[in-house]
């Protein structure tokens, strides 16, 4: 079970975008996530008339390592760590380490 999933609101904890908050757009692999508005780079793109793409310099998000982001806890309004707990009915759920609140019931 992944601790950070698509759609989670996360805070960047290190790097040039430290403190930025955004939604996880995509989980690339087990260790990388794509965060909205964080780790933007400029890419020089060639035009491709077959796909209808224009050329120029575009801004795009690059993946971040999951160790460099922390999930945002709306209860405390701070970034938090995530734990995994097994409920009585056998389901695995994620919870915030600071206050024990379940993220997805």
Overview of this structure, please?
This protein has 105 residues and is an all-beta fold. 0% of the residues lie in helices and 45% in strands. The protein has no helices and 10 strands. It has strands at residues 9-12, 21-27, 32-35, 40-45, 56-61, 64-65, 69-73, 78-80, 82-86, 92-96. The strands form 3 sheets. Strands 6-3-2-1-7-8 form a 6-stranded antiparallel beta sheet, with no helix packed on it. Strands 4-5 form a two-stranded antiparallel sheet. A two-stranded antiparallel ribbon has the order 9-10.
Q: What general form does the structure show?
A: elongated
Largest sheet strand order: 6-3-2-1-7-8
Tell me the radius of gyration.
17 Å
Structural class: mainly beta
User: What percent strand?
Assistant: 35-45%
Low-confidence stretches: none
Count the strands?
A: 10
Written as H for each helix and E for each strand, in order along the chain, the element string is: EEEEEEEEEE
Describe the biggest sheet? 6 strands, antiparallel
Distance between the termini: 14 Å
Give the integer mean of the pLDDT values.
Answer: 93
Number of helices: 0
Q: Give the helix level as a range of percent.
A: under 10%
